[in-house]
Amino acid sequence: MAQKAIREYDAKSILAKHWKKYFPDFTYAYETIMVQNGSELKEAAKSKSWIKSKALVAKPDMLFGKRGKNGLVLFRDTKPGDVSLEKAASWIDEKSSSKQSVYFSFEGDTPHGEAKVDMLTHFIVEPFTPHAQEEEYYISATCVGDDDMLYMSAEGGMEVEENWDKVTEVAFKITDSEEVIAERIKANIPKDVAEKDKKAFAEFAIGFFRAYRELNFAYLEINPFVMQGKKIELLDMVAKLDDTAGFMMAKDWGDVEYPTSFGMEAKSPEVEAIEAADAKTGASLKLTLLKPDARIWTMVAGGGASVVYADTIADLAGIEDLANYGEYSGGPTTGETKFYAETILGLMTKAKDAKDRDKVLIIGGAIANFTDVAKTFTGIIQAFENYAEKMKEVGIKIYVRRGGPNYEKGLKDIKEAADRLGLYIEVYGPETHVTDIVRMALAK
Amino acid sequence: MAQLFTKTTQAIFWNNNTTAIQRMLDYDYTIQRETPSVAAIVAPTSGNKFEKFFYGPNEIMIPVFKSTPEAKAALPKADVLLNFASFRTAYEVTMEALNLGGFSSIMITAEGIPERLARAMNQHARDKGVTVIGPATVGAIAPGAFKIANIGGTIENIISSKLHRAGSCGLVTRSGGLFNELSNIIAINADGIAEGVAIGGDRFVGSVFIDNLLRMEANPEVKYMLLLGEVGGTEEYKVIEAVKSGQIKKPIIAWCIGTIAKYYDSGVQFGHAGASANGDMETAEAKNRAMKEVGIHVPTSFNDLPEIISAVYHALHAEGIVKDIKEPAMNVCPKVRRSKEFICTISDDRGDEATYAGFPISSLATPDTGKGIGDVISLLWFKKQYPQWATQFIETVIKTVADHGPAVSGAHNSKVTARAGKSVVEALVTGLLTIGPRFGGAIDGAAKYFKYADDNKLSPAEFLNHMKKEGVPIPGIGHRIKSLKNPDLRVEGLKKFAREYFPSTSLLDYALTVEQLTTSKKENLILNVDGTIGILMVDMWRALGYSEEEINEFIDSGTLNSFFIVGRSIGFVGHILDEKRLAMPMYRHPMDDILYDVPMAEKI
User: Fold this and answer.
1) Number of domains making up chain B
2) DSSP conformational letter for B131
3) CB contact under 8 A, A308 and B260
4) Phi-psi category of residue A331: left, alpha or beta, with phi > 0 → left and psi -120 to 50 → alpha
5) Does residue B95 belong to any structural domain of this protein?
6) Pick from B480, B511, B519, B481: which is nearest to B495 by CA?
7) Which of B115, B302, B306 is opposite residue A311, by nearest beta carbon?
8) Looking only at Cα atoms, what is the longest distance across chain B?
9) Interface contact flag, A304 B19, Cβ < 8 Å
10) B246 exposure class (CB count in 10 Å sphere: 0-12, 13-18, 19+)
11) Residue A101 contacts residue A116 (beta carbons within 8 Å)
């Protein structure tokens, strides 16, 4: 996926790193720190004096919003703006010691829908910034359709979705020049911004939108930011990066992390291993575990064909039976295919089917354009050789359908190998409709 | 433009992807194209000037260039760019081609180009009216006319999927693998496709479904269309609008894959980067339903696509809109082909009579043909018919350098060897082996340095300074005894000829300004005969229309030296025959002509 969410702390760090370039006439103290527990915060206080000297605000930094409504923003001990280092440290330790429920939607202040339950592991701590409500503003940018959109509002810190009428939106073509963009922003400053602040707001918005574009953010939101003359505070930020730009942005982004979202199961080591292999090859290797104890596993070549197989399995068997989604494509080497196949066979042979049925392995694919079928099947055969005993123990029926360069040899080889290893296999070529093996597998 | 490609479309292939290019040429041969569909290859890091490929059983050479502008300048009619650069450079390659102009379509294969770059590139192309196919695609095909790279797979699959000749379906998909699959299904259930495009799997692609379908609506060869969409995005709705408004009247069959996505939250990425539903409207179900509502033929599942294709096709056939297709003649690519070890581009002895660059020898040899040795050299060395002033100049040069007496080192070596009892050829090569930087090499050197100075617009003083820094005396300047007052008549003759017959003598004019400066320092520092020949050769090539780069290549490859070698061989052979005639004995150098200074070797 090209667009990846990053932590608030990383988003602020990226802006701070390029502050002088985009906001030369504004100041930003960049007093912010990310910690995983209270003692880390205390340790950091030794080198960063503001942690000791200023009243603090602490909140989880784990890609979810509505932290205030979830009661997860610490800004008061007995009264707003009196949180000491001691208090913040103990609060972080308390919140990270047990699983927390987080709601993602609210009606008013009432939680709506189901909560996700997970451990809180990352917190962002910053100074408490006293300011007036009218000094808070909203700004965000993203891409909609073919255009870049800039959203601005004189009211910050609000629920944007509920107050859309207070937001000014401006659309820009990708080819618009700096000058055109600056002029249009100046002409569209929300009318509720006080007259005396309009110039500064425009200047900040121009810098913000330029940072969004040049730093390859896919989404960038500050809600709210505080503007006091030329002094800026970024109270709350949400950001996504276009990670396909990573190769040219490594220096500009610095050491940025793409965490899994709160409540999502941590990626299994197998999935992580496939992701690591995918990052290293010009081919494509993808794996998502949907229901690891389910009966039907797929090992399908091609981004389109893999979806068609998943659709067909869902139609004919139901999603309860579908264990994984994934695909390999773009001409992977024999070694890469072997690794991919072994990963799937490893997962598939961890346990027998709960109802003691045979498991089904669909080795599918459309008619390849350039992937050498025999070569990729060699990798799969090598994986069979290493896993044959386990596969027989668990009970696996294999269904193969594939076409493309060298497919006759590939199909013949895989059939021979399976027969030699004592594995159940049925093999079909392009004369059989691409997803027909799903029907055949389910008919048994 | 109603058709994306025709049977005369030619492409420039960016990146030397030999497998994909060979597949294109196999296709060309199979469908009996007159010209290969790949006109040139761009490979920035390759030192090769061409790459060999099979064209059926034979081999052809496709020129290789270091940059797109060079390739486009050489092959201006090639108006398709197949951009096979990686995701790191695909943007720059596309933008360069767009700014260069002259391309009607650009196909981009890289997956994962940074989104902002992809958007900018696609928009620039749209503004310039250039069709972009991709990024992240396997390409497009106009069956029977032109096929991009690997689309359609192997030649066997192409024929079994009837992609070797036009059918009546217009096919548009995102996925490349399913494109192939659908071509096969359409071949089985209908009569194949007339034009097909896999638009690419990235979130931002250049031409989208509607762009391609509108073109197909205007293409009379397309009788109905098949659209394979995906979950995510709203592009299918543009098609729905076009059907509603009557912009598209031809029947459309359509299906969006990814119906499974509804069962999972957005954390699961199905298929391509572009395939992720934001909101109900972007789900596969919603799109399938909406398409069905406006009368698009939508099956109940992907499994039922074959039936619906067959039904639509047979209905059109029954109405007479689709006619039966006469299967065209095809060539068959041999299974086993052997690459040739040697290449010859100058002469051919396979016919009745051997030819020099296409001219039978008899058409050049006898006096009545009016051709001389200069013509033969222009054909065999340069593969061109030079005009008479140029061939006469070449002959003048050969005659001028034929000999310079027995004392020069080359002639001396030939004589010594001949007197040792060796054959003509052995004695000749000892003489020829002397030719190099100090003997005869001034022709090369003069051409090289004077051209450098002229190209870089150095004033004569700056040129002298430059040569001083290089630590080289200026080649082609200086004579043992001749001076401005006592000119070398060979030089005068060459200059006179050039003044009279050359269209221009820019480098000679420059060299004479240099001579003015050098002779003001010392009067024998004149432009000598070697220098004059080298410089006038450059002027000759300039006047014949060669580019500066081509002339530099002539100089670097030793072409100038070759004139000296051929000319002086005449003199060497003369000296050798002279020795044989005189039956001179073995030569021994007189000892009193050698300074002996041989100290005892030190022990170390």
Assistant:
1) 3
2) E
3) no
4) left
5) yes
6) B511
7) B302
8) 112
9) no
10) exposed
11) yes
What ipTM was reported for this prediction?
0.89
Ramachandran class of B144: left when φ > 0, alpha when ψ lies in -120 to 50, beta otherwise: left
Closest by Cα among B292, B265, B122 to B207? B122
Residue B20 lies in a domain: yes
Cβ-Cβ contacts under 8 Å, A175 against chain B: 120, 123-124, 127
Q: Does residue B422 share a domain with residue B295?
A: no
Summarised one tens digit per residue, pLDDT across range B412-471 is: 999 999 999 999 999 999 999 999 888 888 899 999 999 999 999 999 999 999 999 988
CB contact B88 to A (< 8 Å): yes
Q: What angle separates helix B559-582 from helix B424-432, to the nearest 10 degrees?
A: 140
- What single DSSP character describes residue A403? B
Contacts of A248 in chain B (CB under 8 A): 88, 114
Q: Which residue of A has its CA nearest to B260?
A: A311
Q: Are residues B214 and B360 in the same domain?
A: no
The answer to whether position B164 is within a domain reads yes
Tokens 């003691």 belong to residue: A356
Are A296 and A348 a contacting pair, CB within 8 Å?
Answer: no
Site of tokens 């800026």? A232
Return the half-sphere exposure (C-beta side, CA atoms, 13 A cut-off) of residue B565: 14
- Asked if B175 and A304 come within 8 Å (Cβ–Cβ), the reply is yes
Measure in Å the smallest separation between the Cα of A430 and chain B Cα atoms.
8
Which one, of A124, A112, A139, A435, lies nearest residue A302 by Cα?
A435
Query: Is residue A256 a contact partner of residue A10, using CB atoms and an 8 Å limit?
Result: yes
- In the block, tokens 């220096």 appear at A251
Q: Give A293's DSSP letter.
A: T
Check whether residue B117 and residue B212 sit in a common domain. yes
Backbone CA torsion sign across B15, B20, B23, B28 = negative
B359 and B435 in a single domain? The answer is no
**Catalytic residue (one of B272, B297, B479, B575):** B272
Q: Decide if B177 and A264 are in contact by the 8 Å CB cutoff.
A: no
Q: How far is CA A444 from CA A159, A309, A312, A411, B281, in A?
A: 54, 18, 16, 21, 37
Domain A269-443 is classified in which CATH homologous superfamily? Answer: Succinyl-CoA synthetase domains (3.40.50.261)
A324 in reach of chain B (CB within 8 A):
no
Determine contact: A245 vs chain B, CB below 8 A.
yes
Binding-face residues of A in 247-276 toward B, CB within 8 A: 247-248, 261, 264
B199, B208 in Cβ contact below 8 A?
A: yes
Residue B102 tokens, joined = 């002259």
Q: What 3-state class would DSSP assign to A224?
A: strand
Do B63 and B159 belong to one domain? yes
Per-residue burial over B589-603, b = 16 or more CB atoms within 10 Å of its CB, e = otherwise: eeeeeeeeeeeeeee
Whole-number Å distance between alpha carbons of B190 and B207: 26
Q: Do B362 and B486 reside in the same domain of the chain?
A: no
Is B272 catalytic? The answer is: yes
B contacts of A145 (beta carbons < 8 Å) = 234
Look up residue A110 and give its DSSP letter: E
Amino acid at B520: S
Looking at the fold, whether B434 and B529 belong to one and the same domain comes out as: yes
Residue B575 lies in a domain: yes
Q: Do B270 and A367 touch (CB under 8 A)?
A: no
Q: Which domain holds residue B176?
A: 11-318
Q: What is the mean pLDDT of each run of 10 residues along chain A (444 residues)?
A: 87 97 97 96 95 96 91 93 95 94 86 88 95 93 92 87 87 96 96 94 97 97 95 95 93 92 80 89 88 95 92 93 92 93 96 94 93 94 97 97 94 97 96 92 88
Going by C-alpha positions, the residue among A192, A258, A206, A359 that lies closest to residue A10 is: A258
Which one-letter DSSP state was computed for residue B260? Answer: G
B298 and B359 inside one domain? no
Identify all chain B residues contacting A288, using CB atoms and an 8 Å cutoff.
268-269
